[in-house]
Each structure stands twice: as C-alpha cells, then as structure tokens.
Amino acid sequence: MTDTTTISRESPPVASQETVIRISGVKKSFGHNVVLDGFNLDLHKGENIVVLGKSGSGKSVLIKCIIGLLRPDDGEIQVFGQNVTELNHDELDQVRARVGFLFQSNALYDSMTVRENLEFPMRRHWIKLSQQEANEMVMEALDNVGLAHTVDMMPIELSGGMRKRIALARTLILKPEIILYDEPTTGLDPITGKEISDLMVELQAKYQTSSLIISHDMKCVERTADKIAVLIEGKCHALDSFDGLKASADPVIKQFFE
Amino acid sequence: MMAFSAGTAYKADIYRNMPLTIPPKMKFFFEETGHIARFTGKFFTEGFKPRYEFQEFLRQCFLIGNKSLSLVGLTAFILGLVLTIQLRPPLLRYGVEFELPYIVADSVIREIGPVITALIFAGKIGSGIGAELGSMKVTEQIDAMEVSGTNPFKYLVVTRVLATSLMLPLLVIMSCSISLLGAYIGYNIKGQISFELFFGQIFQWLPFSAIIPSLIKTLFFGFAVGMVGCYRGYHSTKGTEGVGRAANATVVISSFLIFLIDLVAVQITDLLGFTS
Fold this sequence. Notes:
The complex is a heterodimer.
Chain A: E1 19-30, E2 33-44, E3 48-52, H1 59-66, E4 74-79, E5 82-83, H2 89-96, E6 99-102, H3 114-124, H4 131-144, H5 160-172, E7 178-182, H6 190-207, E8 210-215, H7 218-224, E9 227-232, E10 235-240, H8 242-246, H9 251-257
Parallel strand pairs in A: 3-8, 3-9, 6-7, 7-8
Antiparallel strand pairs in A: 1-2, 1-4, 4-5, 9-10
Helix pairs in contact in A: 3-4, 3-5, 4-5, 6-7
Chain B: H1 2-16, H2 24-47, H3 54-93, H4 100-138, H5 141-147, H6 152-190, H7 195-205, H8 211-234, H9 239-271
C-alpha cells in the first residue's frame, strides 16, 4: 500500500474475537460434481476475509449457502450464532436484514429507478419510515458512493462502475453488520476496480462491518483482505494474511501470486 | 433351437434395459411435465398464504391490460369487419342474409373472439413475462429479491398469473364488443342496417348464457399463458440465449395449451348444453 491515493489497510479496524459467521464442515454437490467438501471458516467481527479460488471452485456457492439462497448438503453455517440451515423463512429474513450481499452482476432491478432500487430492501424488510426519512437514507447511501445525482436515473443509463456503486449503496442502506461480496471487481477496468476496492475499505472503516469477499482479482484481494482463505477442492486449503500466503512455498498457493 | 434361445436372451436383455433406454426427448417431456405440475401446485399453496402482494398485483393488472388494449382492439375490429364481409355472399346465395348479425356474433363470442384474443395475448404478454423473468433470473435479480426479504415466487409469479387470469376475460369482453362494432360497419359497407336492428337481431337469438362458457375458458387461457410464461422465465438458464428461448417457448407452449383447453371446454359446454 505505497500508493498515497489508496485507502490504507495498514491499520485496519481491530477484529474482535466475536465470531459473526462460523462455517463448519459444509458440503455441497450438484449431481456428481462435489463443490464444497467439508469447508471450515470463522469470520470475526470487524474482519475482512477474502475467499480466493479458481473460477468454478465453489466460492459463489459458499456465500449463497451463507445467505440461505442455497442449502448445503451437510455441515453447519452459523450467522450471529443462528444456524441458517435450520431457520424458517421469517427467521432467515431477520438474519438477512443484518447481512448485505453484493451480487457479481449487481442485480439492480431494471424496471425501477435508482431511488426505488435503494428503497426496495427497506420496504420489504418492513422498516417503518416516513417518506422523508426514506429519502434521507437513500441520499446518505448514494452520498457514500458519490452518486447522489443518479437518484432518479434508471440502471440502464449508468455505466458498469456506477452500477456497481449503486449496488453497493443498496447493500449498505440497511446498515448491515456483515457484507458478502461476490466478485466485486469482475468485469470492471483496473482503475474502476481499484476505486471499488478502495470504496469497500472506506465503507468498512466507516460502518465497522465484517466482510467476506469472493474474488480472484489479486489487486482487490491485496487492498481489502485482512486474511485470505484459499478454497481448493472444496476445502479451506490455507488461511493467512496476504503477505503470509505470498511467501508460501506451497505450489498451489504460489499459482495465485504468479 | 440355438438361434431361438439366443434371440430370446437378446430380447430379454432389451426388456431388462428398457428403463435405461427411454428416448431423451420423452424423458425430458415427462420431467418437464412434472416440474410444471409442481410449479402450478406451488402457485396454489403460496398464493393463498399471507403476505399478499396486492400492490404488485394491481400494478401487473394495469400493465398487462393496458399493454394489450390497442393491439387486441385493432385486431378485434378487423376480425369482425372481415368476417362479416366474407360471410355475406354465401348467406345471400341461400337467402338468409338477415341471419348475418347473429351468425357473426355467435362465432365471435363463442369461439373466434376468445381464441384469437388469447393467442395475441400469449404472443404479447406471455412472451414478455417469459423474457422479463428470464432476464431477472440470469442477472440474479430474483436472488436479490429473496435476500431483500421478499418471496420472489409470490412477488413475481403469483401476481402475474392472477393478473393474466383476470385481465384476459376482461380483454375478451372488450374485443368481442369491438368485433361486433366492426361487424356492424362491415354490414353497412354493402347493405344497410340500423345500429338498433343489428344488435337487436343478435340479442334476440343469442342467449346470454353463451357468454359464460367463453369467459370461463378465457380465464383458463389466461392462467395457462401466465403460468407457462412464469415457469419458463423463472427456470431460464444459459444467459441471454436462455432468455430468448424462454420467450419463444412461452408462445409455442401457451398457443398449444389454448387450443387444448378450447377442445376440452367445447366438450364440457356441449355436455352441459351450453352450445345450443
């Protein structure tokens, strides 16, 4: 982090010992294709962990299991101490209100304006707000990502980087305690990718969130990670800091840094 | 004898392996039928449970009805006009021209109006639903809805299927009325009849009960179009190619189902004595 324009990760928020996500022995297969084969990982409060792995190694499947979009075949996923695999729909919604999810494809609703996109999670989680309060929250979220002027635009009118920022604003609107990022810089040019990575770090410092980031963009990994979990053959192959893994002699890990 | 034994053994092998040799297309057909049945069952179980998406249902009713108004209206007008112009010469030949308003009205209300409107509806609304939901699926918008505390099946599927089931009968009432107006104008191109006499002749012979089976079958047409569109869109895969396929398959399957439902409906109405 020698670049002075980059948000520094040299003094990240101190992670507490409180575990916000505990993944124990998670297995998931699609037909004969074993994707996760006993994956274990703990995410502590205030910590940023990047899950690093090859394309198709099951990284996205892992975070979709955490948020309850996919059900693991075996194992346990505890979010805030609750096993998400055993929760009913309403209980799962309560957990989801505290967890933000940034989709790889942004998943902005095409038929809604930016304002409606941002209001949607608030309305659906039955958060009682006056229109003025809702407007203030929308504008605060957009200010955070520097796109207040786009509030009445449609997603189709925005560039790829702007859409990613709006998706991030929508993720942040409920002030989540955990944010799950699915390939946040994929499909973006290096400059926009760097801006998004810096924004993630800035927002994490501002809101003291914990983050689980799925990525294979090493620039993004270096900027955002407190620790890196390397996902190989469905298991957590290694868990260490960026520098620790970079110095590793393990040929499998070396491939990612070459 | 040896040859016979060998042949018998060969045949036994074939029968033993039969379950494994189901043609892929047939297997796909049965699997797909099972999935659609389960999807339809989910509609009935989820649709009656709270929380109800009333606002989204009203929005869909407006969009679906409003989007089809002009196309359905124009087509219905042309249909009534053309039907009258074409039926006039043969009826003149047999000297029963005075029956023209009733014959046109009977065919429009009982059969042509509902079926043609439903086919246009499948092409315009069904394909739109298939493409919209397909696009939402491949861009993870459906997952995003679920994460945002929304049951996407209720929000997207139940509201759209209810809206298509309700709006198609209303569109058919409108299209039949416009068709009859077209028929009146068509009659007056070569003949002369007053507005009161034209519609008086229709309602003198056409029982009100003729409208009821038409509207009931149209409700099923609307349900089929909505359900197929939602199913194909909701299970769309393979990116943008899948979206196109979903839209296309919706039109093809819906059109086939419209004729199938029509066939069943005509048998039932015949049995119940509604056709006379």
